[in-house]
Amino acid sequence: MQVITSKDNPNVKRISKLTRRDQAKKEGLIYLEGTRLCEEALSRGLTPVEVIVSESRTGWAASFTPGIEPLVLSENVFTKISQTVNPQGVAIVIKEPESSDDFPSKGDGKDVYVVLENTQDPGNLGTIIRMADAFGLTAVIVSPTTCDPYNDKVIRATMGSIWHIPVVRKTMDECFAFFNGNGIETVATHLKGNDLGSGDLKLPCAYFIGNEGDGLTDATTGKCGKLIRIPMKGRAESLNAAVAASVIGYELSKLI
Amino acid sequence: MQVITSKDNPNVKRISKLTRRDQAKKEGLIYLEGTRLCEEALSRGLTPVEVIVSESRTGWAASFTPGIEPLVLSENVFTKISQTVNPQGVAIVIKEPESSDDFPSKGDGKDVYVVLENTQDPGNLGTIIRMADAFGLTAVIVSPTTCDPYNDKVIRATMGSIWHIPVVRKTMDECFAFFNGNGIETVATHLKGNDLGSGDLKLPCAYFIGNEGDGLTDATTGKCGKLIRIPMKGRAESLNAAVAASVIGYELSKLI
Question: Is the ipTM here above 0.90?
Fold first, then answer.
């Protein structure tokens, strides 16, 4: 077993570059670090293009990525490239899942899409992906301005769901062309809408969630076929974007 | 108008100390900075014990805190004590709302309490407080180990709701003594529970949400009178704590 002890080793330099999300993204790759994050991706059957372990964690590589020659770093060098406060000595590099040209469909006429227009908070995006996976929605559609789904904070917040449910980047124009062309009801939240839970919604359905501060753009709201309102009997006038997406996802999942 | 230009001024030293949450907490105070945070608290009628502005923001103090002599700092000194990346030159110090010995009640027999046992993420706590305010719940009860509700991140995430809805710190023993003694149904989420939304719940009611990683303790679950399950038709096995709290809060608010 060859242990790399210098941070100037070309392999170390290459991996170190990939730990920066902007660099990995350019190459269509994702750097994952830590046992939970790595094992979640591996348990989904994703094959790493690279396995990196510290000297003391070669046993992990033998168990979780058999057949792949790991890059073994001294504890010191691993700590130097690590992006975490308490390095666990375990990292993998995987390819970004390909974003298909088509919209995913379950083919049972009960599709539910949650469409995010300009979601900015990684925690919110991750929480919505996790919720969509839990409630059995078909896919999470993200606008070009929504934050990167393979951002480390997003991946952590999904608790593995990022590898289960399709997350597809589409423009609002592409969304309306597909939904309108396929008889899929489009829904926006609006104060003038009917109450969520009043039996107004039917599947297949796509619902739109806007930016944390600004909500949905008027352009998108105007194109939606139906407006709904989340009943709020208290004083706050709005909900966190992930909470709003979740409450609607919960109601719609009753129809699946 | 006297402008303080030295960071060694005793008043600046005193305020600078209060910008650290642990120090402010010891004195039963809360330091709020930035126009949104300050104006939210002031619009709720809270009277600051101290107003701090930069030289260029004395107009803000005149408009929002008339009758209170502000501490005016040079831009430079304000920036030095500021806790934000882009200082807005506006801060206030308020007293921590007193945590009453009694449990709050609306007195209409329709109380709903969300009880948080060991919630650790400030974003989750803030999101739950905001949700509880929006859905008209009675109060948010936090265990002694739940994170500080007056932590800056929590306050920001509540979007002002922290000043609207009572947030009360109680032990689990105090909770069960009060709920059981007053005919308030106690509810825990559990895989073996009945489905949420099946008409099983009635008011008044208190529902318990556990720690992000570990869920509710067995001790607390065991003391609850009813178990419910959030139906999940997908693959993820659990929801983010704030999402779970919100979906249950949404269902219960239908009964309010």
Answer: yes
